DNA sequence: TATGAATGAGGATTCATTCAT
DNA sequence: CATGAATGAATCCTCATTCAT
């Protein structure tokens, strides 16, 4: 929702602004984020900033949109590349695609984690949309006899999502480390850890 | 680390201060938290505040300490009550004890979630200590033939911890709802969701 | 004093600009008035505005001129239609003409009231010119033996003018209400309110 | 409604602040008034200002209160000194008292005039209260056979009030000049200006 | 002539902390 | 010990005007 002026800027200038915003929103919550720091970092005058964006919230929403694309775009597109993949395969595939190919900056994870706290409507929507996609995959797998029919799909997605964010943010795992752990988690979820016959 | 003066206060006054801090730190991050609001809420003079605490950080660290007790104390104590319980039983038991008996205010969850972001050294320590306790339980269960010997204990704890916080904060589940979901999660982790023979 | 470019605009565009100015100057004093809001309201580019007017003051003076016409034009013209009317009849007639026929927007009154405060030279001139016209009428009525020869003409005009503006602005009287009260005021001024023999 | 801190200040400092506010609110409307100018003029730090007043409105309301006292206090008290005075005598008396004895600064008139425009609820209340006092006096004079029973009391008060403010603000009459004109106005209202038998 | 991007000064307000009483 | 007054830096945001295209 920036002003159209913003989109008429040179790519370089626009990139400076988005970068400055990323850096700021990665390190600070919405309230703490400082327009002053952003413009200083982006090296633009204060007046200009307010020509591009209506206010801090305007920048934030635009930023959320950009970040969310980074996270959900791959999901939406890649999934169709493997029409017969199981839920677990899609999770693995999407994670590998996004992390290995796109080289997501760690600041995105920081910012993403902060968004959880804001519990912004915008973010809730993105999360919901993404969750629904995965739930459908699970239901399909149930129908195909791959996942137990009484498994709670929503809880499954929540387990993976919360572990994923937690691991990448808190443990600051590198890509390889994270993907390795994700495989282990998926395996636990598939097979369980209890010794057979011990329930 | 408050001044000793603080501990000489009447219980009622001290409680007012801690309550005001809880309310503030539940709603705001460290930087956003306002001493002005806290003293107004606790109804103490500004000068007094700085007699009790060196500065905002001093209050914060003390507050973290108090909050963490709320979460870890039960773990440390209760666990010994059931010396033969499995890891899963202890998780369930501790959760039930803490949530049902102690009636933890939702503000604690909010504050707890914020602490994740701060990634404060203090908090990291608390988390580490708690994790270690659980890992030991898992190792014991492996030795007892209850948990598969090649299961990754740390990841197990992380899965449960991240789901737990996520569920209580983001989904704002009530106690019953949360305990119900936790049971499902534990079951998934124990048994897996894959249809047998499908691996 | 706008640029001649302004007068070459289509009537519609010019009207949009004057309307936007009216709305702005009715709600805000000169300093508070925002060119930004005016151009947004008039839907013209900022660059264009500064092509038509030198600056905010330029627009303001032009606007004052337009507004004053609304108020003084009728006076100047209508008076001659009834060459033998008394001062009081002219007052009544002009008020009726202006208010009933021309349907003056309430914004004009708001703007007019604001001008009082500005005490702008421009406005002072308009007021002076109008006052002089009325004083002449009073002097003629004195000569005709209709008004007491020792009545202070200037004060008379001031009484009516101040009541008139006050009533329309502050009490926000509708046209009928205002005309009714004006008649009462004129009657008081003519006849007095003291009970005869009581002086 | 300033903070009690404000009233603990030395008289000199408090006076500096009130003076600075008077000067500012005489020259500028509420919106235009600048806290920056006020504190510079009063020579106090910005932080201090906000310790005394909650915000600009807080200062404004306090200021209105002070100004209104200047105008209405005399009315309320003096009236009772002459229990049998007529409405006209009270008007004259109060005006003389206030203007001659209290030496009201011209800035008060400027500020008072601006308040008219703001049409603030606070001001409306003060005006209403004052109007009611006078209307009662008029009704008493009607009962005493001094004022014509069909005279419209409210309009009478409005005529005098609007002339009074107008004369003092716009014409910037000095005290003597104003009182002289007020007498003329009162006389016109009492006796009328029409030559007898001419209605 | 039409346009809209650039700009920095100025606006109100909040804040954590110090210090004198 | 208790108190609360003092402070200036930092916050977001609006503005009128200029100028290059």
Automatic annotation (TrEMBL), chains A, B, C, D:
Q: Which UniProt keywords apply?
A: DNA-binding
Q: Name one Pfam family in it.
A: TetR_N
Start-end of DNA-binding region: 34-53
GO terms (molecular function) for this protein are: DNA binding
The answer to keyword DNA-binding applying to this record is: yes
Presence of keyword DNA-binding: yes
Q: Which residues form the HTH tetR-type domain?
A: 11-71
The protein's matches in Gene3D superfamilies, at most eight in alphabetical order, are given as:
Tetracycline Repressor, domain 2
**Protein name per UniProt:** TetR family transcriptional regulator
- Whose protein is this, by species? Reticulibacter mediterranei
> What does the record give as the organism's lineage?
Bacteria, Bacillati, Chloroflexota, Ktedonobacteria, Ktedonobacterales
């Amino acid at each position: 929702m920036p002003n159209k002026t913003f989109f008429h800027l040179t790519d370089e200038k626009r990139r400076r602004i988005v970068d400055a915003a990323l850096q700021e929103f990665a390190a600070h919550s919405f309230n703490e984020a400082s327009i002053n720091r952003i413009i200083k970092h982006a090296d633009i005058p204060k007046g200009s900033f307010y020509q591009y964006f209506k206010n801090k919230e305007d920048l934030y929403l635009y930023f959320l949109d950009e970040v969310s694309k980074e996270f959900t775009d791959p999901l939406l597109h890649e999934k169709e590349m493997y029409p017969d993949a199981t839920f677990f395969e899609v999770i693995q595939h999407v994670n590998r695609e996004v992390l290995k190919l796109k080289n997501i900056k760690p600041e995105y994870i920081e910012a993403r984690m902060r968004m959880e706290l804001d519990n912004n409507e915008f973010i809730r929507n993105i999360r919901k949309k993404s969750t629904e996609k995965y739930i459908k995959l699970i239901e399909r797998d149930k129908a195909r006899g791959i996942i137990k029919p009484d498994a709670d799909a929503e809880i499954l997605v929540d387990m993976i999502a919360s572990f994923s964010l937690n691991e990448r943010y808190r443990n600051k795992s590198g890509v390889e480390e994270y993907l390795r752990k994700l495989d282990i988690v998926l395996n636990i979820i598939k097979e369980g850890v209890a010794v057979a016959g011990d329930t």
